[in-house]
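We store amino acids, tokens; thus:
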Amino acid sequence: MKIIKDRIGVSLLEIIVALLILSFVMYGITSLFMVSKRLMYHGGARITGMEVAKFFFEDANLSVRADIDNCLYNNSVCKSTNITYNGVEYNITYATQNVTDASMVNTTLRKVILNVTWKEPK
């Protein structure tokens, strides 16, 4: 059998190896886009969660007097709330407690702990 050194074209094995390498590269690029999309969605949901928390803190900040019913002095006023924005449901829960600081022995200061949670679709 005579070997031809100046052959033209590619063999089937070379084509399969090239397609295999190309498929690995395309899978990596596709995975990169999927992860970046998920991270962008998570960042948007996190920013929205912070804006929701700021909205509820503004309400608590406007009514801080002890002589009116507000979340600082009456825990029954602090109710859990659900808000849906862009198809994501945000759950807002309040908790109030006294400020405990060693330098402030007899203080009447109170603090509000606001917890915003949401579930992201997969």
Observations:
- Residues 12-62 form the longest helix (51 residues).
- Residues 12-118 form one domain.
- The chain has a mean pLDDT of 80.
